[in-house]
Design goal:
The chain is mainly alpha-helical. It has helices at 13-19, 22-31, 36-51, 59-74, 78-86, 91-100, 104-114, 119-132, 136-147, 152-164, 177-186, 190-199, 203-220, 225-234, 245-266, 269-282, 286-305, 323-343, 396-405; strands at residues 368-372, 379-381, 384-386, 393-395. Helices cover 60% and strands 3% of the residues.
């Protein structure tokens, strides 16, 4: 047998191994205690074999492999989970598992050679990692070659963030501030106007326009797709400088509010509670605080009482006391569904509640420390993630979960959150 009997209670895995040899190749490379580049090379060799392999479309096999992959991931073995998906040429499933283990480079390789639809979603985290370590040339190269062809807006805003952070400098003839600001004045579409204001370095005005639109939609009791488009635009840059504190606080409130439904979408129950609490605490007026609490408390209660981990969190029955709140909650869900379908190839469908961590990114040292997370209050496993104040701690998994839902700092200072 390939591995110990205790690791495979269901002998049907033999069926997958008979169809293709890639699982064996990857499994052996992961189980052997070799250096990371070495098993990465073996993985790529295995993929080359897989490229020419013919995999029969077998629903039972697919269901079995998914079950095995989920089990591996829950055991803290994300590489084996990815290998399970590769055994049936499910590149999307493998890429998701690699991203969930913070194996960004392997995820990018798979996307580039086997699943180009996910290039943008795998290239951006690597660009952000390069940005974090001041490797600006790598970040710009990834954006220019892997992102701009699919999403010009995202590429432009990424480079604008690098410019605002003084990581890249533009010559006066290439710094088109006046052009963008003139374009902003001519725009009738709110999302495009905010984008042009940010590109013109007028963060204050961009945030004011965005907040006005967000608050208008929430007050009216109906959120549309444009709400989420504005979230994506504003959260591409840091606003800790160049934005008045009152405006910044209103931006943070709306970002945390939106993140509640993002956490539902990704099946992150503990993040639902984190963002609900932050949104309630940051509501600008007493009346608004009461309304936000009435909106969010039933959602948190539904998540806490959920026992069915097979259905997406966003599909839970939530019991709001008024039709207005019920319709507002429904509009958040429907507009987010439409937005995710048009912007994400990997996460275009909502996910069920994760039993444990959505991510496994702390390595194999999962011994609890004596330090507790400021996000969840739980003991931190592995190396803690330290936020920009050098005092606030959380686990690496929690940091990555937070970033999936909100890119503005947990500390509320307007800095962009980058755990990659």
């Amino acid at each position: 047998m390939l591995v110990g009997q205790e690791e495979y209670e269901d002998g049907k895995l033999i069926k997958a191994l008979q169809i293709t040899g890639v699982f064996k190749s990857v499994l052996e490379s992961v189980r052997s205690k070799v250096q990371r580049p070495e098993y990465g090379e073996q993985l790529m060799q295995a993929l080359a074999q897989l490229k020419s392999a013919s995999i029969k479309d077998d629903p039972q096999l697919k269901a079995f492999v998914k079950e095995e992959a989920d089990a591996f991931f829950e055991q803290g073995k994300p590489m084996l989970a990815a290998a399970s998906y590769l055994s049936i040429s499910d590149y999307k499933g493998a890429i998701i598992m690699l991203l969930r283990s913070n194996e960004l480079y392997l995820a990018f390789y798979l996307a580039k050679h086997f699943y180009p639809e996910a290039l943008k979603e795998t290239a951006l985290p690597i660009a952000e990692r390069a940005e974090k370590f001041f490797l600006t040339d790598i970040a710009v190269s990834l954006v220019d070659h892997q992102v701009s062809k699919n999403d010009t807006q995202l590429a432009n805003l990424t480079k604008k963030r690098l410019q605002l952070s003084n990581l890249i400098k533009l010559s006066p003839e290439n710094d088109q501030k006046a052009y963008y600001l003139a374009q902003a004045q001519a725009q009738t579409q709110v999302q495009k106007r905010v984008e042009m204001l940010i590109m013109g370095s007028d963060l204050e005005s961009g945030c004011q326009v965005a907040v006005k639109e967000w608050e208008h939609q929430v007050y009216q009791g109906k959120v549309d797709k444009g709400y989420w488009e504005l979230q994506d635009i504003v959260q591409m840059v840091s606003i800790h400088r160049g934005v008045q504190p009152e405006v910044r606080n209103r931006v943070m409130h709306q970002c945390w509010l939106a993140a509640v439904w993002k956490a539902l979408w990704y099946g992150l129950p503990r993040m639902v509670e984190v963002f609900a609490q932050k949104a309630k605490e940051s509501a600008p007026e007493i009346e608004m605080q009461q309304r936000i609490a009435s909106l969010l408390d039933p959602i948190v209660a539904a998540v806490r009482s959920n026992k069915d981990h097979l259905i997406p969190l966003i599909n839970l029955q939530v019991h709001h006391h008024t039709d207005t709140l019920k319709h507002l909650h429904a509009s958040f869900i429907s507009s987010l569904s439409s937005h995710m379908l048009s912007t994400s190839h990997l996460f275009s469908a909502p996910l069920p509640s994760s039993h444990g961590s959505f991510f496994h990114a702390s390595g194999y040292s999962l011994t609890p420390s004596t330090k507790r997370s400021n996000l969840s209050g739980k003991l931190i496993k592995g190396h803690p993630y330290t936020m920009e104040d050098a005092k606030t701690l959380c686990s690496q998994e929690e940091a990555l979960e937070y970033a999936m839902c909100c890119r503005m700092s947990y500390l509320g200072n307007g800095m962009r959150f980058n755990p990659y």
